[in-house]
Hints:
- The two termini are about 25 Å apart.
- It is built from 13 helices and 8 strands.
- The protein is globular and about 50 Å long.
- The strands form 2 sheets. The protein has a 6-stranded parallel sheet, sandwiched between helices. A two-stranded antiparallel sheet has the order 1-2.
- Helices cover about 50% and strands about 15% of the residues.
- It is of the alpha/beta class.
Amino acid sequence: MKDTVAILGIPFSKCTLQETADHLGEHLTKEDSELLHLITINPEIAIRHQHDEELQHIVKEADWITPDGVGIVYASRRQGNPISERVTGYELLLKLLEQGNQEAWSFYFLGTDEESNDRAVKHVQEQYPQVRLAGRHHGFFSSEEEPQILSDIEAAKPAVLIVAMGAPYSDKWIYRNKERLSGIKLVFGVGGSLDVLSGKVKETPKRWKALNLEWLYRLLTVPAAKGQTSRWRRQSALPIFIYRAIIRK
């Protein structure tokens, strides 16, 4: 990872979205590149990291960590070592698809429900016709089905594996299966990005993004998926983050 700033013990990259995409592009164009595990962390996950030992191990071994939240940016400014902008999984995915369309990179899309996964992949094929589809699979698979999915991914050998099974579960799944994913150059979790690409969830309007209120827009408009903690309950981590990373600092 390039220049970083530590916030609550997490080394966040200070690269902009474009710089991050450029560095990852260089990594993907090298023939001998090894697996790079990138993680996007927002304030909610940063707080969970404080008491989740498995997540702490994952963060320690991650190759790149991006600041997925304006709270991370504010905290870095408070420390006097500012991050210029947040880098979300969704925006980074779009950047890589743009580059992948020029370079004919191969992608495998794993996650969300079957219908949304299918629709998201069709959208990618329409908007980025030169991107090669290495494969796809929904994220609601059983432990019995998992070995076959991993075998399919190994056989496909995509340049990029996109995992959309929610944070931090996606990164825990990636971490547990790193040995099986060694033939891939880049893997990262993208939260609900496939739901947005599929049209199941509307993209946050630009005016909300400009005000750094994307989290509030999601809170008001997107219900939690079945089996997941409600968004309102999850956002209770925000005041804790503000106190620990900004006010107390």
